[in-house]
Amino acid sequence: MTMFKPKQEKIQNEMFEAELQQGREQGVLDYDARSSEQEMVALQQKKENEDLTRWQQDMEGELNLVVHRLKRQRYDENTEDWVQMPGEFTGRKDEKGNPIYKPIRPMMNDLGINFFITSSIPSLSRNLMMSNYDEEKIYTRLRRIIIQFIHHLGYHHKEYDIDEGDLSSILDAFKSLIEPAHWRALNNGERNFLNSTSRRIEAHAYGQQQQQKPKGFLSGLLG
User: Residue 183 and residue 193: Cα distance in Å, rounded?
Assistant: First the structure.
């Protein structure tokens, strides 16, 4: 059996200990790097979830679309702007050969549209979506809001320059706009959905961090 001299044995032990220490330090560095990366991924996932939530609860775009409908406007991709819808064809053309249409009246004037917007906004709020209502309370709220809206339009339709034939279309647009947010509050539905989504993201991030934990030194040697 080969025997080492004391000095040689000491040097070998020091080299072995140095390699062990280097392995431990490298393992810690690798874990810190993986841990930081996982934290960044988790934070990014959380941000994306918050952005998605804001997008889901932001009803301003829906309101703007309805307002353009009330103004009888359409989006022109050429000009990238909203333009008035054409009315009936007059049978004449302009100097460039383009057909001339009669101007079409909006369903409501600006005063009426301002009332429509003001009446809609409370039913589009995040506070409403995050509430906890049962079915009876939702029906009661919607019935009250819609009846008040109908009574007001019936009384002011001339002031708002509304044709009686457009009243039903305006009412349908209002109901379609305000109802969804109420039903998202049914039995705490919106809040439960968001909490569940948040827990899934946290569990996923935690699971990834657990998988990336460094093994002990002896475990590493044993595979």
Answer: 13
> Strand 73-76 relative to strand 99-103: parallel, antiparallel, unpaired?
unpaired
- Residue 15 is predicted with a pLDDT of 64
Amino acid identity, residue 47?
K
| Neighbour-count burial of 160, counting CB atoms closer than 10 A to its CB (0-12 exposed, 13-18 middle, 19+ buried) | buried
Distances (CA, A) of 189 to 2, 26, 87, 182: 76, 48, 44, 10
Q: Is 171 exposed, middle or buried (0-12, 13-18, 19+ CB in 10 A)?
A: middle
Burial label, 82 (beta-carbon count in 10 A; 0-12, 13-18, 19+) = middle
Low-confidence ranges of the chain (pLDDT < 70): 1-58, 189-223
The span from the CA of 86 to the CA of 105, in Å, is 10
- pTM here? 0.61
